[in-house]
Amino acid sequence: MNHHPTAAFPALRLRRPRASAWSRAMVAETTLSPTDLIWPLFITEGKGVETPIATLPGVSRWSVDRVVERAREAKALGIPCLAFFPNTPPEKRSDDGAEALNPDNLMCRAIRAVKDAVPDIGILTDVALDPYTSHGHDGLTDAAGYVLNDETTEQLVLQALVQAAAGADIVAPSDMMDGRVAAIRAGLEANGHRNVQIMAYAAKYASAFYGPFRDAVGSGGLLKGDKRGYQMDPANAEEALREVALDLAEGADSVMVKPGLPYLDIVRRVKERFAVPVFAYQVSGEYAMIEAAVAAGAGDRDALVLETLMAFRRAGCSGVLTYHAAHAARLLG
Ligand code: PBG
Prior knowledge:
By secondary structure, the chain is of the alpha/beta class. The chain contains eleven helices and ten strands. Helix 2 crosses helix 3, helix 4 packs parallel to helix 5 and helix 7 (238-249) packs across helix 8.
């Protein structure tokens, strides 16, 4: 493409098409609509329960019956997909995270309830053990606290199968174990879940932006050490491309970059290199930053939300997981 203008000022005035709203709309290179949004929801035990999360102002944990309400709301707003994260009661957490494999755990009950009430909405489930372990790590650990790759992967396959059996449409491994996409794909194929998709958290960084999420699922206070032994170093971009290449070769239908805004360079490189559906997770700390800016009078929420979401689209995202999904869909509707 030739970006060198053949005319110069004043024949060429780039401000001309910006002069009116209809014209700006006509030349816009990128679109943003509710169908670009995936809404993460936190699930808690009980009935009729809404528990606000202090570090995520405006976001709550919902009991299963109220998750169903959120699903109806999302459907009406044109949001195509929900992402579920359980806040497992402390007494059900264990070293090995066995509750992840319980077909009647909070996650599975929520999937079944929503599939029953709102069949035509996608459900994405996180595959990782951290909401279920007593140490807050995404996998099984050895005596020294090292997260064991292959043993964890075996558990993740079983977890994904339990979620798929409950009705999950997309399983999203967020654990960063090597080889888990292939193992989960094989498990799904062998168990009659041919059309269950895998969205791989392919480039997931060891980030300081996950704090409020860990409060929301109740793993933050429990976490021993950090996740740098399995999540990626924020210094690395080439490595993200290798992660994506591997996950695609292993059968991922789509890939995710996480966090979002600080990693838009990764989104762009992945999109250009692989031309596959790329999603970004605008994570809890990013949401909290916007809300803190709004609370401090430093910006307008609606404008900040729509601008950041458009930036994800411009960078190459097919869609964005965002806690602002319902609000943004309302603004766009
Ligand atoms: C767990 C998981 C995390 C997030 C999504 N899945 C946290 C972590 O890796 O510690 C973070 C999402 C957010 O911060 O909004 N495997």
